[in-house]
Structures are given as C-alpha cells and as structure tokens.
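Suppose a colleague, Dr. K., hands you the sequence of a protein chain of 256 amino acids and asks what its three-dimensional shape might be. Before reaching for any lab equipment, you can write down a predicted structure in token form. Begin with the sequence itself:
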Amino acid sequence: MAAGSKPRGKAPAILLLGILPVITVLGFFAASCGNADDGGPGPTSQPPEGERTPPEGQGAQSEFTPAENADYGGYTFRILGYDGAAKGIWQIAEISEIIAAEESGEPINDAIYRRNREVEALYNIEFGIVPVTYPNRGDFAAKFTKAVLAGEDLFDAAFLLGDSLPASLSKNNMCHDLMSIPSLDLSAGWWDQNSIKGMSIGGKVNAVIGDVNLYSATAPQAIFANKKLMQDNEVGDLYEMVREGKWTWDAMYDIM
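The predicted structure, expressed as tokens, is then:
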C-alpha cells in the first residue's frame, strides 16, 4: 500500500516487498509494510488446501489457521512484480511468483494457479498483477517510488529487486517498521528468521524473506573466484578469511 493512501474497500493494507540481491546468494526477500489497523487476515490466514496437511512422515500439522469471518467483497489485490513474460532471457524470469492465468502442466505455474484460486475462494478476493517484464529492472524502483511518494493507489503489494532497496526503502522513510504491526507475527514459520536478523537496522525491520518468495530457492546468484588470478595477484587464502570471520563486503570489494 502506498504510504499515505487508503485501502480500497476491505482490502488488507499490507505491502509485501520482494528483494532479489544482484551479486550474492542472499536470496529473494519479502518485506511487509502497511497499516496496523487494517483488521484483515494477517499471517494466521488459512493456506491453500494442498498445504494444510503435510505429506505423511514430514512433520506436524501446519501452524496456519483460518482467519475468522474474512470476506473482502471481491476486492482485487494488486501486486507489482515480474509477470513471467520474459522468454529465452533468464529461465526463472519466465515464472511469475504472483500470478498464473491457467494450468499448463508446468508444476510451479500450476501450484501458483491452484493456490490463488483457493485463497480467492476462501476470502472472496481476487489477485491481480501490475506487471514488470524482465529485464526492465528500473521499472520496479521507479513504479514503487513514484506511487508511494505521490500517494497513488497503483498496487497493494510489490516485489522489488535488491538494487531497488536503498532508494525504495532506506531513503524517504517509505516503509513501516514490520515490528510495529501487531497482526504481523514475524516469529511464524513462514518467515525466514535469518533474514529478520540480517535485515534489521537500528532495531527496525523493513525487509524479510517469506515462503511466498520462490527465487531464494530457484534462482540464487553466486560469486566465484579464479584461483590462478588469486595466486598471481597474491590475494591470499579467501577460505581462511571466511574461517577467521574476516570475509566482509569491504574485504571483497578491496580484493575485486
């Protein structure tokens, strides 16, 4: 939800933001921003039917419970993010985490399709997408920042790239502290606790990774080092630096 704007109808005023770091394997973050008094279903919402009971021998019953009397009157919940239209550029960009128009036989697409239909039926809500097509990377930060600063009602949620994080979140105070939202339980199992610790700044959390984000599992990015170049340039033993706790962003940049 854009800062300063109001949700339409009974829409939940929670903004989910995804962040795909561009140089390391940190993964795909989701940050939640919004008002604490929306009254809508928070993280206690019932998951899609296929996720409510884990397969035999794979643990206890899911911690999800249904939100009571939640009815959003057919509201369209709009999400800014990849539309899955990029073909032949980057394989993961051919999949939208958000939307699937129909079942196609592709497992991820079909799981997203069924998830959306079941949640829509459960809460009388619809999911829509404000599309960004890879590799139009600048559209993420530009669309998000413009909407927030102008108070435009363009989308309810957004998945952003990592290089959009400083401009979109750190500057201009455009997101709420997730810890300040009473209905948002960051201790729930669908939030990555390591990301909460890693994204905490000054005791506030503006970004977190969640199960809704697929890219952390399907599209990690890594940095490689050429051992011959390391030897020729007397870089030293990077593995020992890691073991000694000296492998930092500054150390990496200095070596590069």
